[in-house]
Design goal:
Blueprint (H helix, E strand, L loop, with lengths): L1 H15 L4 H8 L3 H13 L4 E4 L5 E4 L12 H8 L5 H5 L3 H14 L2 H11 L22 H13 L1 E7 L7 E13 L2 E8 L2 E6 L3 E10 L8 H14 L3 E7 L4 H5 L4 E7 L5 E7 L2 H10 L4 E5 L1 H19 L4
Antiparallel strand pairs: 1-2, 3-4, 3-7, 4-5, 5-6, 8-10, 8-11, 9-10
Helix pairs in contact: 1-6, 2-3, 4-7
Length: about 325
């Protein structure tokens, strides 16, 4: 909305001082012409913004133009400013809203708190895109318009119509009663019911969405953490196989691409990774581990180790002698 953009423009000038129209356009995600129109609108509304010509020119505010939010102390502001960027904002399409909110929080602090909080937040980094092994997290991408429809239906308590592409199936439209949104390991999920039955939909597989006017059939209060634990337990125990694996970090992504879910992950003593994975069944687990050869070792269950040993023994016997 334009009103939000105007506020963000003022806050950018408050926090950074003089900025060019190109810089403002880049920060706000609009064209330079839009920025110039916004500057004119602010001036007409009495906001003391002025232009400076020349090589180092740009737009700036007269000194002393500000508002203060005195209810936040230093640690409270720091907690807000260092809460992200996090996975939720990416999965739920809230990144730009968070950036705008953080600018408002920083600008509204009293002068002494604003300076120290701005410096302190540079010393904290929460959930970077890559870990110490340079493994980049894969983030689900959901179109902004689709995510906005899903969010609106969840918050308004309305039924939701989604065009969903389930694994191995053609996309189809489904009408669901949304309960809430969950993000796990940079993957977003919609928890819902359909005809009274529990359903969990991966957001990246929602191709389109439409909020309906009809009220959703769902409880007024909800414990998403409990619901997620219950659904995860049912999913992982429903005919799936739990596997403990040691793997070369360089082959981690190859292994994860074959698993249904990752239950735990930690470094091993020799530099490898130890992962608890869930596979669709024993056959898929055996196939996945066999593809990685010596780069992976199944530690449990014993039945999987035995199956891989028998396969390797049979292969060695076939190639152990001279060819015919």
């Amino acid at each position: 909305m334009r009103a939000d953009r105007l506020v963000s423009l003022v806050l950018l000038l408050r926090q950074r001082g003089r900025l060019t129209a190109d810089t403002l356009a880049r920060e706000l995600g609009v064209s330079t012409r839009t920025v110039l129109r916004d500057i004119e609108a602010l001036s007409a509304a009495g906001v003391p913004v002025y232009a400076e010509r020349g090589r180092h020119g740009g737009f700036a505010l007269l000194p002393g133009f500000r508002t203060e939010l005195t209810g936040l102390n230093h640690d409270e502001a720091l907690a807000l400013l260092t809460a992200g960027p996090g996975r939720g904002e990416r999965a739920f399409g809230l990144g730009s809203a968070r950036a705008s909110a953080m600018r408002k929080v920083l600008d509204a602090l009293p002068e002494n708190n604003r300076a120290t909080a701005s410096d302190a937040v540079q010393r904290f980094l929460v959930e970077p895109e890559a870990d110490l092994l340079s493994r980049r997290a894969a983030v689900d991408e959901v179109p902004g318009t689709t995510m906005a429809e899903v969010r609106r239906a969840v918050l308004a308590g309305h039924k939701l119509r989604i065009h969903y592409a389930a694994t191995g199936q053609d996309p189809e439209w489904r009408t669901v009663d949304p309960i809430g949104l969950v993000t796990v390991r940079d993957r977003g999920y919609l928890l819902a019911t359909r005809a009274g039955a529990d359903r969990t939909y991966r957001l990246s597989r929602v191709l389109a969405a439409e909020e309906l006017a009809e009220t959703a059939e769902r409880p007024h209060r909800v414990d998403l953490d409990r619901i997620w634990r219950e659904r995860s337990s049912r999913f992982l125990s429903d005919g799936h196989l739990a596997v403990l694996v040691r793997v070369n970090p360089a082959r981690r992504e190859d292994l994860l691409d074959t698993a249904v879910a990752v239950r735990a992950e930690e470094p091993d003593a020799d530099g490898r990774l130890r992962l608890e994975l869930t596979y669709q069944d024993a056959w898929h687990a055996e196939w996945a581990l066999w593809q990685l050869g010596m780069d992976a070792e199944a530690l449990a269950p014993q039945s999987l180790r035995t199956a891989l040993r028998d396969r390797a023994t049979a292969l060695a016997a076939r190639y152990g002698g001279a060819s015919a």
